[in-house]
Design a protein that fits this description.
HATPase_C_sf, kinase, Putative transmembrane sensor histidine kinase transcription regulator protein, Heat Shock Protein 90, Sig_transdc_His_kin_internal, two-stranded antiparallel ribbon, alpha+beta, five-stranded mixed sheet, transferase, 395 residues
Length: 395
């Protein structure tokens, strides 16, 4: 039920607004219920049927059914929408001339028969003047008026109408409903385009996230392989930590994660690497308490730390220190990872992690994110991520 209401929320809002406008234009705002005019209520009911009920029955629901069927072309749907519009116009004109008070619709077409004033007898009137007066009288008898009918009158037509007036009203009402149908189709097209764009964005995020899996799994398995021939017990410990890392990563499918959760994931990975590097790997955490609740793309910190170890610590004989700094300032969250580098050392990696992270940042934040990296004094490498500071909403 709630899913159906959410799906048709725009139509519901539009129809509720139209109903309120009709009520204000026909009934108004009475001081009390006793002051409500019965004729005004009757007129409101007739207009409600023609403005709300008939479009929903003959236009909205059939078009929605056609839009959800995959074998209908765009041209066919537009042609059918015009057909539905004129079909609704036929139903509206029939309703106007049978059940409801004639002329109760917003658009009213009526043949008026008025008699011209007979000219007074005068000697100065010639035969030519008499023929002109008779022609003017015939034109007055055959005049047709068209206008907007919006009020609480239920008197209907002053004169009887014929088949011509019925078909003329059907055409006018049909144009009105065709316009409604085209507006509805245009809205549906825009909504469908937004939905496809959102789905495409989600698929791109999924692909970029899953591309990271082979990247860090390959490095972790290399660490385990290096210990197999040195210490079987240590290799067993590495496998257990690798299992915990594997489980933690694949159980968290979210594209956005808190910094606190990212640190937990990095701790699992660092436990793996500390066994391999021992005292060669030193970590310094400078994280503000407020920054722990910040939301950032998943695997961001992990990517920075992994690259720092692979391209910074590994080539150095004596290892080095990795500094991780996170802070919040002026509604911006900043994450910095600094690691030492070997002079004139060229990294042989494919930079898959940073490239994927950069693409994910563009999809999630657009121009509101910054990912930069630079060398400091020829001996340190620093990567910096700046994004809007947001926190996770609690259920």
């Amino acid at each position: 039920m709630f899913k159906l209401l959410r799906q048709h929320r725009v139509l519901i809002c539009v129809q509720v607004s139209l109903t309120l406008l009709l009520a204000l234009s026909t009934i108004g705002i009475p001081d009390s219920l006793k002051d409500v005019d019965s004729n005004a209520c009757l007129s409101f009911m007739h207009q409600f049927i023609q403005v709300v009920v008939l479009p929903c029955t003959f236009i909205y629901f059939p078009l929605n059914y056609l839009l959800y069927k995959k074998n209908n072309s765009r041209k066919r749907i537009y042609l059918l929408s015009l057909a539905f519009g004129f079909l609704t116009g036929l139903a509206s004109a029939t309703y106007t001339h049978t059940i409801s008070s004639p002329g109760s619709f917003l658009l009213k077409l009526e043949a008026e028969k008025t008699s011209a004033t007979e000219p007074k007898p005068s000697k100065q009137i010639t035969d030519k003047d008499a023929q002109q007066a008779k022609k003017d009288k015939n034109d007055d008898d055959n005049s047709v008026s068209f206008g907007i009918h919006l009020g609480n009158s239920t008197e209907g037509y002053k004169n009887s109408t014929g088949v011509g007036i019925f078909f003329a009203e059907m055409f006018i009402h049909g144009l009105f409903y065709c316009l409604l149908a085209l507006i509805l189709l245009q809205y549906q097209a825009l909504a469908h385009k937004r939905k496809l764009k959102k789905q495409l964005k989600q698929q791109q995020l999924d692909i970029l996230t899953y591309q990271l899996n082979p990247h860090f799994l390959f490095n972790s398995l290399n660490s385990i392989r290096g210990m197999l021939y040195e210490d079987a017990n240590e290799a067993k410990t590495l496998l257990q930590q690798f299992r915990a890392l594997f489980k933690h990563h694949f159980e968290n499918k979210q594209h956005l994660q808190t910094l606190e959760k990212e640190i937990e994931l990095c701790q699992l990975y660092l436990e793996l690497e500390k066994v391999r590097f021992e005292e060669r790997l030193e970590l310094v955490w400078l994280v503000d308490q407020k920054a722990l609740a910040a939301i950032l793309p998943s695997m961001s910190l992990f990517t920075f730390v992994e690259n720092a170890i692979k391209h910074g610590i590994t080539p150095l004989i004596y290892g080095g220190k990795i500094t991780i700094r996170a802070r919040v300032y002026r509604a911006k969250f900043t994450l910095e990872v600094t690691n030492p580098i070997k002079p004139n050392h060229q990294a042989d990696g494919t930079k898959t992690g940073l490239a994927n992270l950069s693409q994910r940042l563009d999809l999630i934040y657009g121009k509101h994110s910054q990912l930069t990296s630079h060398i400091i004094d020829g001996s340190s490498y620093q990567v910096t991520l700046v994004i809007p500071f947001t926190v996770k909403k609690h259920d």
